Amino acid sequence: MNISERLAALRREMEQESIDIYIVPSDDFHQSEYVGEYFKARQFITGFTGSAGTAVITKNMAGLWTDGRYFIQAEKELAGSGITLFKSGEPGVDTIEQFLEKELPSMGVIGFDGRTVGVNTGKRYAQIAAEKEGRVFYQADLIGRIWNDRPQLPMGKAFLLGEKYSGENTTSKLQRVREEMKKVSANIHLLSSLDDIAWLLNIRGSDIAYCPLVLSYMMVYEDHAELYADEKKFPEKVLNELKKNEIFMKPYNDIYAAVKNINPTSVILLDPERVNYTLYQNIPKKAMITERENPEVLMKCIKNDTEIKNTKKAHLKDAVAHTKFMFWLKHAAGSDDIVTEISASDKLESFRAQQEGYLGASFAPISAFGEHGAIVHYSATPESGVTLHKGGMLLTDTGGHYWEGSTDITRTVAIGEISQREKEDFTLVARAMLRLMNAVFLHGCSGANLDCIAREVFWKERVSFNHGTGHGVGYLLNVHEAPINFRWKEGNIPAQVLERNMIITDEPGIYIEGSHGIRLENELLVCEDETNEYGQFMHFEPLTFVPIDLDALLPERMTEEERDMLNNYHRSVYEKVSPYLNKEEQEWLKQYTRPI
Amino acid sequence: MNISERLAALRREMEQESIDIYIVPSDDFHQSEYVGEYFKARQFITGFTGSAGTAVITKNMAGLWTDGRYFIQAEKELAGSGITLFKSGEPGVDTIEQFLEKELPSMGVIGFDGRTVGVNTGKRYAQIAAEKEGRVFYQADLIGRIWNDRPQLPMGKAFLLGEKYSGENTTSKLQRVREEMKKVSANIHLLSSLDDIAWLLNIRGSDIAYCPLVLSYMMVYEDHAELYADEKKFPEKVLNELKKNEIFMKPYNDIYAAVKNINPTSVILLDPERVNYTLYQNIPKKAMITERENPEVLMKCIKNDTEIKNTKKAHLKDAVAHTKFMFWLKHAAGSDDIVTEISASDKLESFRAQQEGYLGASFAPISAFGEHGAIVHYSATPESGVTLHKGGMLLTDTGGHYWEGSTDITRTVAIGEISQREKEDFTLVARAMLRLMNAVFLHGCSGANLDCIAREVFWKERVSFNHGTGHGVGYLLNVHEAPINFRWKEGNIPAQVLERNMIITDEPGIYIEGSHGIRLENELLVCEDETNEYGQFMHFEPLTFVPIDLDALLPERMTEEERDMLNNYHRSVYEKVSPYLNKEEQEWLKQYTRPI
């Protein structure tokens, strides 16, 4: 079936169900950042392959909403399909909600698969329908009915993360979660965020690319728990571990019926940002819902000492791999060897793969040369990928999963001699990264407070960058992990205070369209510093130990304090990494970590 | 009557009204920062004269809650009264609410004058009573019954602020407020914050020390308004102006009956932070209340161009007065002339009084020498005041009201040679103040984002200060004006974005108990800077032009950038102020604004 045929088939289903407007989001049933093939319903119905976007289909039109990252790609992919592109955020472009308000007829019906829609979004759709005396039909997986060759749900194996890696067993974690339940008088805690479940149960899986997670839901009761997942994914050993903690396996999809059958006298703790609309609607109306952030969110963000010790090991391996890569790149690229964006990325992956305990990439690697560096979400394809040449920079934003944790690092490396402008920009980014890394602050600060320490040097030059300066990092989990970040624009949500043993990235960047892009990213560990009459001071400790390319740096553009920051950092890089290098690499590293 | 007799009289009244616990706060009926003599009920019943504190009286005990600023003073003043001091914030000390929860008997009654209690506090008291199946009796002004020689309500004259000074007439302001009412479908806007009323009506008064305000309430309707205040305060001219805008005078206390008589079909816009509990309770239960910040709060915070032009004039006068004072101080103090904290303060006041259009001090002046500088809220008295001598610093935090606006400035000046430690601390404070003053930022930043720019240099040295780095300043109104500030700890309230034409202070400080205190404070104007593809950049422009004492500064402790900031600032100081000085003062200023 081509797109027109698919749309026609969908409209037949819509008519049968008396649905006026049907919405197809990009999400899976768990509000995951990455989704498996089974869940790519929006891609199926529009042909658009980008990661973000929502399709809205009426009787006589079909639209796709996506954001600025994808305008060009969407225009290409939608060409000839008859689907209208709605450029979200552009002036004069209606939001989906505004579109619904205009297009929904009186007493009309909005349809969607409520499992792919968050609680708050679902509520807004229902509100819009109610204002027209209409309703939502959220039990409608119409795409499922027409998608004949829909991929199967993934069947990745689950595995246990022993206490040697996790640092805390499930018995202890469950106890802490149940204490939080007790505080809000909840006797059921409904969970559907995959990383929260993986953390709680010390299990990992392989159902989603780059995310070692198992598709699952969970209900934690006061004395037992139910895990809704495909039992076939679980080796005997894992099942036994679960049983020990009175955790009982149930089929994945049975959660919906189970929630309907919740005792109406229950008090249910759930996180509306992390539960889908159908689950929420299935809860008996008489039951009491206590909405708050999942307690697992903060618990897993504060790493335990075992996780920290392991993470440092993972980062050292990562630093060795990355330094070897830089040595290779500086010698190979622009020489007679042909190095492309993709082959460079593969080479870096191969250095990581040589490290013990490496499990795979922690996210889709970015390897962007020259002007591609300015495209923040650039992904090299055989078509787009270019050959590296002298007089440009390669930006790599990559990371690995190890048994000892996950990494995320960005370096931008000069190939041959680069321009003065590029060096100025590189120096600005390095200064911002170093200043934030060396910040000292009082306990109580959030990333919203501290972001300005990195931004200040940019803003003085009247430049900026349109992404957060940093995000939390999971431990062999999602590489983007809530609830911490460095974002000065926090909206109305009070930003999470930075606590000891949290891990956050520090990644300012500069992007000059059509010319070059530079980003430098270290991971930082939040540490306690001195306590005195003013309170508990805190500082960061870098976890990433890979040189900042001195070929791209203008020391005279840095203050003495900033040069000291860089020299101290480079001294640590050499001390930590050089023992794992061969003689040639060591000499190179010595040179590239020399004091400036 | 002594305190014991007053407490006995109060307890007789409590018994008559069946009140178990009676609460006496420090507030007037308008949540004002400073209160007139009439409202000092808490002082009357306890003898404690500090500005902050709450008395709680039961049948057999009386307690006073106050904060760290006042522990020593309260201990002294309460001695022998039998009143227990509760040190708020100290470990193990119950809050008033915890005390009420413990002490209120079943079905007990909490009494207070609801006019002196904010809406949210009143609601919490009612909640505590309800949990004991008791109630609050908030109509009980028992102090009024026993305070025979209670001072009269102030009778300060009201006066008009012409458009030449206000920059916008009341007709226009009322129109803008009514547009905001319309947005939330309100047909009544109930106001009791004195500065909001003064701003809206372009009137000023003299009912409260340091605050040019008129005791009043207001109800704004769609087509007219009612002002509840003592008509005798208003000259004919002012009354005529009010009438022109369909604003009708009503007796001050009639507001309570008027609110009771509000049409129950009304929608009332009010600010629960700026309305007292009795007013709120008097609103008919069937009427709808829309709670949000008074629209006047943001409107008056964003000064208009006339106000800015005038404010610059006021600050120039203030700078001339303050520079003359510094010249005098540097010559007089520590010489044969005897200069005390109080005489120095009087001298500064006399220099201000020489300026045209000066109306008086904008707050109680702080003049603190040597170790007194470390007491943030120090107020010199004939008993405490010391004589200045060489080898110490005088901290003055003072300000004036002018027809052209209000000022707030702090300088710390070395008398003779000071210690290396004092110079190091002074330099740290100067660096922080200058860095924040020179910040560039993207529109959208709040003071919570930017505070770290000043704090960062402190935190690097593991020191801090326990007050905000800045606050908004009113225009011939309250010198502490909501809703802007520089405070990294903002709690749950989303901090106000800094907009063009807002005025905010920049006043870091360092306080070494028993030794010295240093604070430097400039007022800053929020200005628009370049707009480019990254957005609208903003910067600050100083309004205050008084030298930073170079005798106390260690230039070698500053970065080149920071020295440039100081030199640029001092160049402006000399350019602006020197034309108004005599030859001798000019030469002195030249020397004290020399480049370093």
From TrEMBL, chains A, B:
One of its GO terms (molecular function) is metal ion binding. Residues 6-129 form the Creatinase N-terminal domain. Residues 536-596 form the Peptidase M24 C-terminal domain. Residues 310-526 form the Peptidase M24 domain. One of its GO terms (cellular component) is cytoplasm. The keyword Protease applies. The keyword Metal-binding applies. InterPro entries: Creatin/AminoP/Spt16_N (IPR029149), Creatinase/aminopeptidase-like (IPR036005), Creatinase_N (IPR000587), Pept_M24 (IPR000994), Pept_M24B (IPR033740), Peptidase_M24_C (IPR032416), X-Pro_aminopeptidase_P (IPR050422). CDD domains: APP. Pfam families: Creatinase_N, Creatinase_N_2, Peptidase_M24, Peptidase_M24_C. Keywords: Aminopeptidase, Hydrolase, Metal-binding, Protease. Belongs to the peptidase M24B family. This is Aminopeptidase P family protein. It comes from Candidatus Mediterraneibacter faecipullorum. The lineage of its organism: Bacteria, Bacillati, Bacillota, Clostridia, Lachnospirales.
